[in-house]
Amino acid sequence: MSEMEGPAFQRIPPWVKAKLSPKAIETIQKVHDWVETECIPAEPIMKAQLAEQGKRWTTQPLMHELRQKAKAQGLFNLFLPNHFKESPGLTNLEYACCAEIMGRVYWAQQTMNCHAPETGNIELLAKYCTPEQKKKWLQPLLDGTASSAYSMTEPDVASSDATQIGCRITREGNEYVINGRKLYGNCIWNSENKFYILMGCSDPENPNKWRRHSTVIVPTDTPGITQVRNLTIMGFDHAPEGHGEYIYKNVRIPVENIILGEGRAFEIAQGRLGPGRIHHCMRLIGQCERAYELALIRSIDTRKTPRGKLISAFDSNIERIAQMRLEIDAARLVVLNAADTMDIHGNKAGRYAIAQSKILVPIMATRVIDECMQMYGGQGLTQHTPLPEMWTYARFVRVADGPDAAHRHQVGRDEIKTAEGFKKRNVEYQRKYKELAKKYGKEYETFWGVSADV
């Protein structure tokens, strides 16, 4: 059998296979084997350990055990692109194939230190920090001995317009003083969360609104940080990491905790969020594949025979299964294209393809998982299957790293910029049409979309 046959490579398009290095082929197979043998069978155990009294906000022992095993097998930090010296050597496209497989289990990514927000934070620190900062903050994340969170969203401003972020960062001597309120940073109740990467306003009077904000590192044990509560997502608390709501009151950090320099927050945020959006989308595709497989199993379950027929015998379900297959495969192509564009042209040049992925994939995922839930009937809404949690994650990703509207606006704005070029082409079509009409003695009519007087 070819090294790229079998379930690990079944859904990878031929053009992507042609770009995979030998190392990537080996890694994709190892990730597949890891998820299938170590993660999926352990799902009930992970939930049971989390449910033990008094341990809701403590990382499960099994998670620590799996992380050590994955690290020993070289399955750690796979996401970090190969242009970083700390990278294990995969391209964005190669890692995207791994991320899809990881998405089959919500927490599988964490066993390999490839989970959000760690992925974005590690790439941010690797890209923008000084050697001293990397040693203090990056290395523990790479080693898996600490975790971190990203603190950007605020409750009192439009989160889709980050220029409105109002949490104040004020310099006083050799310290920065932070005051404000934040949402979504991972819960401080989990003691493994060691620091926040916080975006705040350091220069509110700057005439350039894109230079008013800075990014700083805030240790979670700094006096003045209060977690108001855990933020549930559609009713799920997402323990043991979760999402918190925080008040920063006169929180003091040393000036050396600033990243890149004052006023550089937007440059940093764009460098961080692009790859993370692709990771989310590829994991969602893997999650959809798992949901789809559960729907297929349900469709041939001989215990479930409404009106004496298997669920798969009904035309509506045959068409439902076909439509899900088409949508998942189409979405995969969009995301793989974005990953490849980032590899070839860089994150900034790939922003259009990234935005396309971020808009299309979460919507597709919620629709596909919803159809799978329909095929399970009432059971599909309960803990009998992982489908409700899958749907919730997909719905959350529609907002995470920017809501649909913000990305649509970016795509639409870029498209409108191309209109003048198309207009010029159509004017030239019209000019040539006029010449042809005169040559062949035909009455001249208005050409498509171009006024007659042009």
TrEMBL record:
GO terms for molecular function: acyl-CoA dehydrogenase activity; flavin adenine dinucleotide binding. The keyword Oxidoreductase applies. GO terms for cellular component: cytoplasm. Residues 149-250 form the Acyl-CoA oxidase/dehydrogenase middle domain. Residues 266-413 form the Acyl-CoA dehydrogenase/oxidase C-terminal domain. Keywords: FAD, Flavoprotein, Oxidoreductase. Residues 47-144 form the Acyl-CoA dehydrogenase/oxidase N-terminal domain. GO terms for biological process: fatty acid beta-oxidation using acyl-CoA dehydrogenase. Its cofactor is FAD. Belongs to the acyl-CoA dehydrogenase family. This is Acyl-CoA dehydrogenase family member 10.
